[in-house]
Amino acid sequence: MRICILYHSETGNTRHVAQHIASACSAERLIEILDRTTYTRLTGYASRCSKAYSESLTPISPGTIDVAPFDLIIMGSPIWAFKPTPVIHAAVNVLRGYTGKPVIGFFTHGGMPGSAEKIFTRWCEQRWLKVAGTVSIHKKEIEDEKKTGEILKLIKSVGSL
What we know:
A hairpin with a 2-residue loop joins β6 (about 70-80) and β7 (about 85). Strands 1, 2, 6, 7, 9 and 10 form a six-stranded mixed sheet that branches. The chain has helices at about 15-25, 45-55, 85-95, 115-125, 145-160; strands spanning about 5, 30, 35, 60, 65, 70-80, 85, 95, 100-110, 130-140.
């Protein structure tokens, strides 16, 4: 099964999980999605949380992502204001070649996951993506094999379909 992992990370927690998953499942592609907006140090956090709360989109790099060659898409995001980041929201909207492909979402957070999994699922379904499952990972569980194991179980279940 050909796997593509897309992720956005600000502190490195989501990147760490994405890299661990890529290594464990031999993903063919690991793509970090970057926010192209310039924020000031003083207002950056508040601006980003406000955008997350309102489910806004933000300009990202890469601007389009072709996932046609892959059988499974995995997307990872930190949780801001109890929602996935605007970067991942934008990434869902720039995917190309995804028709009929399953998606797995994972989310890292330092507090409560809120409605991140439900919102991510809604965004995907609005674009006709099939969400095969989601996993929320608290920052204290980043190194917990049990949590990343949940994602690997989802990958195996998709591969056996």
